[in-house]
Design a protein that fits this description.
Number of helices: 5
Shape: elongated
Distance between the termini: 42 Å
Length: 182
């Protein structure tokens, strides 16, 4: 688990974004902590702008909580630590298989799944194979039919029901042999 500490007087530097990329690549859960918040004038207005900037610069971490703290005064530190505990707990959540399959059926029913060469992706069922990080396996007719946009859409729909705050979600596809007319 990680705390990505930003300096409020500098916000997101190139090095911060680089470290954030490593955190994502390593599938670590994270809370963004903006330190030295006590040095910022007009903090309420600055908070809105800071959140916008952080979400823009670290858009690949849009599911992580952001907390503003001052290590000197202690302001916000307890909330940031509580968020870290919540993120830890979210990382270990398990979605019941029946609920996950209802969600996946609903999601796939609302869109046209990807297709190539006249073959359309069919999702037969899903399961959460692991926690730490939450890993979902979708059994499909042909994993080669899946594209990034479809995976992102599935992830976003899972997060609507089960936020997994601060935690990356892994979605994998496995081939399931079935008759094409199933």
């Amino acid at each position: 688990r990680s705390l990505l500490v930003l300096d409020a007087t500098q916000m997101v530097t190139a090095q911060d974004a680089h470290v954030a990329g490593y955190i994502l690549e390593a599938l670590k859960s994270v809370v963004v902590v903006v330190n030295k918040w006590d040095l910022i004038p007009d903090r309420e207005q600055a908070r809105t702008e800071a959140l916008r900037l952080i979400r823009s610069e670290l858009r690949f971490l849009d599911y992580v909580p952001v907390h503003f703290v001052s290590a000197v005064t202690g302001q916000g530190v307890s909330k940031a630590l509580a968020a870290a505990i919540e993120v830890y707990n979210q990382r270990h959540e398990r979605v019941p298989t029946s609920a996950l399959n209802r969600l996946i059926r609903e999601v796939v029913g609302r869109i046209n799944p990807p297709s190539k060469g006249g073959r359309r992706l069919r999702v037969y069922y899903a399961t959460q194979a692991e926690v730490d990080p939450p890993t979902f396996v979708l059994f499909v007719n042909d994993p080669r039919l899946v594209h990034f946009g479809f995976t992102r859409f599935i992830e976003n729909r899972i997060r609507e029901q089960y936020p997994f705050t601060g935690t990356p979600i892994v979605i994998q596809y496995r081939h399931e042999e079935r008759a094409e007319n199933d």
